[in-house]
Amino acid sequence: MKIATWNVNGIRARAAQVLELVEREAPDVVCLQEIKAKPEQVPEALCNLAGYWCRWHGAGGYSGVGLHLAKSRFPAAPSFSHPEFDYETRIVQAVAGDTVFASVYVPNGGKDYAAKIRFLAALENYAAGVHAAGRHLVLGGDLNVARTDRDVHPKERKPGAIGQKPEERALIENLCGRGLVDIARALDPDNDELFTWWAPWRNLKARNIGWRIDYVLASTPLAERAAGCVVQREFGSSDHGPVVATFHDR
């Protein structure tokens, strides 16, 4: 199974790149964030992505997420919905068999830090609830928190900066403590150059001076089958790179 997550920073600007990514990688699950479009504004080529069950969840020029499951792997239509804590079109989930897939875009906290903290706390409870119901969870998205200092380039480390605050990081650890595994870090624990977002100035992306704030988190039984997790820094024109995780089948 292959999971791809990407903060596209505007689906209308990067529709062709999404199609290229899907064609090249053939992911079983596609999680998109910051689509900045209502469902009716999504480019026609993406509205009914060939071979995928699709759900677009957006309200206009801000936030928004998409979630797509390949019909080849999930022949029965999944059940799409939004958890109760969803606001500003930031999360969509799909139940497929014994697994819940979710595309998530956590607030960055710059305008309303308290709302970010509430959302992260709700995400922890959400993961606990999925597992309590006897299901696995795969969560792909932009969590807007660098988990540790290692997840921020030394030139970008700023004590007390939003996205690096201790209380935010503690909530990410709590989320992982709910039976989820950070796939990229589990497979590459000592990589000091593993970033997914680069500020759009001073050529930081090309220089790989960034933050790791985009994740694929998976329930432990799934994580034990993880075979790889790659950040595609050089793909696309978003300020985020796609993260593609692969899992061995049973």
The CATH superfamily is identified as Endonuclease/exonuclease/phosphatase
- Give the strand tally: 12
CATH architecture: 4-Layer Sandwich
- Gyration radius over CA: 17 Å
Distance between the termini: 10 Å
Query: How big a fraction of the residues is strand?
Result: 25-35%
Order of helices and strands: EHEHEEEEEHEHEHHEHEE
Word description of this protein:
With 250 residues, the chain is an alpha+beta fold. It has a single domain, classed as Endonuclease/exonuclease/phosphatase (Deoxyribonuclease I, Chain A, 4-Layer Sandwich). Helices cover 24% and strands 26% of the residues. It is built from 7 helices and 12 strands. A 6-stranded mixed β-sheet has the order 3-4-2-1-12-11. Helix 3 links the parallel strand 7 and strand 8. The longest helix is centred in the middle third of the chain and has 20 residues. It starts with a strand and ends with a strand. The mean pLDDT is 97.
Question: In brief, what are we looking at here?
Answer:
The chain has helices spanning 15-25, 44-47, 113-132, 166-176, 183-187, 204-207, 220-223, and strands at 2-7, 29-33, 52-57, 65-70, 79-81, 91-96, 99-105, 136-142, 180-182, 214-219, 226-231, 243-247. The relative contact order is 0.16. The chain has 250 residues and is of the alpha+beta class.
